[in-house]
TrEMBL record, chain A:
Entry keyword Signal: yes
Name recorded for this polypeptide: Secreted protein
Superkingdom: Bacteria
Annotated keywords: Signal
Signal peptide, first to last residue: 1-38
From TrEMBL, chain B:
Keywords from the UniProt entry: Membrane, Signal, Transmembrane, Transmembrane helix
Name of protein: Ca-activated chloride channel family protein
Transmembrane segments: 393-414
SMART domains listed in its UniProt record: VWA (SM00327)
Stretches the record annotates as Disordered: 301-342
Species per Swiss-Prot/TrEMBL record: Streptomyces zhaozhouensis
Name of one Pfam family that matches: VWA_2
Xref: SUPFAM superfamilies: vWA-like (SSF53300)
Leader sequence residues: 1-23
Chain intervals with Acidic residues compositional bias: 325-340
Length: 283, 425
């Protein structure tokens, strides 16, 4: 994504507003097409989970993924989230048969962003303990709403990939390795205009998957990167599908209505005020 | 508006390209390689796998199913331990591990015949067998997995299987060992989970023959993930000696209390994004943290990523992003970057962790570290707080209405004054 947008935009001047709308429409249309393509490529329900960040299984929003695993495994999935979305991850764990277990077990669901930064759950029961007799347990984690821009030093949720990690937090050592089956689902809802912040991220936070280049000289690295100018092709981990409304969430939010409403009200009030004080009234 | 438009263009390009980019495969696919290591020690005669089936019979049945199901591209090998020497001599018994079937494109009939000949016989030299299994897999890129199936702990003691696992994991060959225990014995579980933990594998306590077959099949499938192995790098203690990194994933080892530094060249107008994780591949104390600092050429901290946690974990991670702004005129670029361009900056990444471990725990090799570096074009400087600078809520709406009212009133008054002045003129 190397190109000079500023040169174009400064020249665009006031026409930029209209151009922007046109481009937005195009962007929405294009990104929609992108998603469709990803869906077409033989999307079946995921039945495996990854065991590390790098091997996380890609899942899409609104699709249930299942996996069979051993108690004590750390299970990873990765899903997309766009700006303006409030995502919520739900996990169901079917525990091993009660007669093979020896004590209570605590499971935990964590969400990390595309840069592997831990995202706290704003709501939901993130960790739960199952007693010996319980057959299953349910966990939920809904991190804060995704914003389209944030200061670089903050860990505000940003558009991109998110990791989901399901693991056992506490267990009797004797129960390690017993078979469990789990299923997870990520749903997203519109977070509304209150989280519609200004600015867009240059690109979504996607996990890099390609092996890197090491050198004793900086110049080698720079040369290498200049050579494969389109280096963002293929460096990312896996086909994380773009959300329906694009990574940056589109341009529409209810701020347009509020602002237009305010403008309309202002115009009416101006008209009313003028009629009150204009000459000819009461004359 | 221009900023918003710039962002839109980015959105447009990202939206158009991303699905293509990620769908593309890179380079020649290396065949995934899996080595099944089966314990054929005397105790495998035990008939406790459900329905009076012996452990060895259950294992043989599972192997046959796996051999039938293995994908064409996967290279599958089989190694045994304790298959030949029935005697009492520790020296000989603890070297009793051999390759039953080499790691290559599998001939299903041949492999099944070889498996059928196995009779439970000897000792359980797990550590020795793991080294052999690693050699069987050969080196070169592509995923390398060992699936170890055993019903007992190592009966030789030397070499310690868990230490062997650490040694193999640190040898830079990206070996993953998954372990399956056929008994629910405390010593077996500890040993097998230690081996799995040290190599990033999983430990399973097998309940019955069907589960055994299913699990082995699942583990063989896991070898076939289209995931590239990270590049090995050796971070330095100081920034000035640190290796240079480009875009990609890297792996390193960091001992307790150690710092590791890496350098990344970033052009002005680009954003550096780094994710780092430290794997707890052995027993560690309850509370831990990780710190990733980005320093400039003069050692000034630009930004940092921190992570902390408590309790059972496999990995602790953090990340940071740092956009490099266009240089000021007085920017001092005298550091390591030399004369190759004014607008290139050096960002030094220093990674440290605060894991600690009980005294009994092995110290070297250090904990595995993974670093993912990305450089993208940066967004412009801070935009308005609200989308397009738009308002929301009653306060701005009432404010706009109030301003309108005042303007209308003033307009009316002004008109009156003007009319009055005209009247008198």
């Amino acid at each position: 994504m190397r190109y000079d947008a500023d040169g174009i935009t400064t020249r665009a001047g006031r026409a930029g507003r209209w151009l922007a709308v046109t481009l937005l429409t195009a962007a929405v249309a294009l990104s929609g097409a992108g998603t469709a393509r990803a869906d077409d490529s033989g999307e079946t329900e995921a039945t495996e989970a990854g065991t590390a960040f790098r091997t996380a299984t890609v899942i899409d929003q609104g699709r249930r993924a299942t996996a069979s695993a051993s108690t004590g495994d750390y299970l990873y999935w990765v899903f997309p989230a766009g700006a303006g979305q409030r995502v919520s991850a739900e996990a169901e764990v079917t525990l091993p048969e009660a007669d093979t277990r020896t004590g209570p077990v605590t499971w935990r669901l964590d969400v990390y962003d595309g840069l592997r930064r831990h995202q706290s759950c704003a709501s939901g029961r993130q960790s739960a303990t199952a007693q010996e007799a319980d057959a299953a347990l349910t966990l939920e984690c809904a991190p804060r709403a995704v914003r389209s821009w944030a200061d670089p030093w903050s860990d505000t949720p940003l558009p991109g990939a998110y990791y989901l990690r399901l693991s056992v937090a506490e267990l009797p050592e004797r129960d390690l390795g017993l078979p469990v089956s789990v299923s997870v689902e990520v749903t997203a809802e519109d977070a509304g205009g209150s989280v519609a912040v200004g600015g867009d991220l240059a690109g979504p936070l996607l996990p890099v998957g390609a092996a890197g280049t090491v050198s004793a000289e900086a110049a080698d690295i720079v040369r290498e990167e200049e050579r494969d100018g389109g280096r963002d092709d293929g460096v990312y981990l896996a086909a994380v599908p773009e959300p329906e409304d694009g990574w940056n969430g589109g341009w529409w939010n209810d701020r347009w209505l509020w602002t237009a409403g305010g403008g309309l009200l202002g115009a009416l009030a101006a008209l009313g005020g003028y009629r009150l004080t204009r000459p000819g009234r009461g004359a | 508006m221009t900023r918003a438009l710039g962002g839109l263009l980015v959105a447009l390009v990202a939206g158009g390209l991303a699905p293509h980019a990620v769908a593309e495969s890179r380079g020649e696919p290396e065949p995934p390689r899996v080595n099944l290591v089966l314990d054929v020690s005397g105790s495998m005669n035990e008939r406790d796998m459900g329905g009076g089936e012996s452990r060895i019979a259950a294992a043989q049945r599972a192997f046959n199913e796996v051999i039938d199901a293995v994908p064409e591209e996967t290279h599958l090998g089989i190694r045994t331990l304790g298959a030949t020497y029935p005697g009492e001599d520790l020296e000989v018994g603890c070297r009793d591990s051999e390759q039953l079937y080499p790691v290559e494109s599998i001939d299903r009939t041949e492999a099944k015949t070889a498996v059928a000949t196995l009779r439970p016989t000897g000792w359980t030299p797990i550590g020795y067998a793991l080294r052999g299994a690693n050699e069987d897999l050969g080196d070169g890129p592509g995923s390398r997995r060992v699936v170890l199936i055993t019903d007992g702990e190592d009966s030789c003691g030397e070499p310690d299987p868990c230490l062997v696992a650490h040694e193999l994991a640190a040898s830079g060959t990206d070996l993953v060992v998954d372990t399956l225990g056929l008994t629910r014995d405390d010593a077996v579980r500890e040993q097998l989970s230690c081996i799995a933990e040290a190599t990033g594998g999983t430990y399973t306590a097998v309940q019955d023959a069907d589960q055994l077959a299913e699990k082995v099949e699942q583990l063989v499938r896991r070898a076939d993930l289209p995931v590239e192995n990270p590049t090995a790098v050796d971070g330095a203690e100081e920034c000035r000696d640190a290796p240079w990194l480009g875009v990609g994933v890297y792996e390193d080892r960091e001992e307790f209390g150690e710092h590791r530094a890496y350098r990344v060249p970033v052009q002005a107008g680009q954003e550096l994004r780094v994710a780092a994780s430290v794997t707890a591949d052995r027993q560690v104390n309850r509370d831990y943290g990780v710190l990733l600092r980005a320093l400039d050429e003069d050692g000034r901290e630009l930004t940092r990523g921190t992570g902390a946690g408590t309790g059972r974990t496999d990995v602790l991670s953090t990340g940071l992003r740092w956009p490099v702004e266009e240089p000021d005129d007085d920017a001092d670029d005298s550091g390591d970057s030399g004369d190759a361009g004014e607008d290139r900056r050096t960002v030094c990444l220093v990674l440290s962790h605060s894991f600690s471990a009980p005294d009994s725990v092995v110290r070297t090799p250090g904990l595995p570290v993974e670093l993912a570096v990305d450089v993208v074009s940066a967004a412009d400087e801070s935009p308005d707080a609200a989308a397009f600078g738009l308002a929301r809520g009653w306060a701005p709406v009432l404010f706009l209405a109030g301003v309108g009212l005042v303007a209308g009133l003033l307009g009316g008054v002004l008109k009156r004054v003007v009319t009055a002045l005209r009247g008198t003129a």
